Amino acid sequence: MADEPLSIPLADLRRSFDLVLRHIEAATPGDTVALDKDYFWSVPTEGLYDVYRAPDELTIGQLSESWQHLTDLLAEPDRAVGYHLVWLADVLRAIGQDIAA
Q1: How confident is the model over 20-39, as pLDDT tens digits?
Q2: What is the value of pTM for the model shown?
Q3: In whole angstroms, what is the distance from residue 24 CA to residue 34 CA?
Q4: Nearest CA to 98 among 43, 12, 23, 17?
Q5: Residue ranges per domain, the chain?
Q6: The organism sits in which domain of life (predicted)?
């Protein structure tokens, strides 16, 4: 375990995301990303970062549901909550695993 928390400058996070998004745009024909999988295994938050024990349970997540939360956010930006990052991460992980190069 790290002695101090990982500090991530928000400006660097934004720049990193922009660079990766540009890569996705360059690697993708057209202006949409097609994902052929929908359901995925998810580790509940309580066990996600306890790497010294196997998770007690796995749950099932759904990319289309995570994406729906994000499109709902686009319609109502004032309703943003921190968990939108988790839903975004679900979608980004699937894209990242699909776009290998």
Answers
A1: 999 999 999 999 999 999 99
A2: 0.89
A3: 12
A4: 23
A5: 30-98
A6: Bacteria
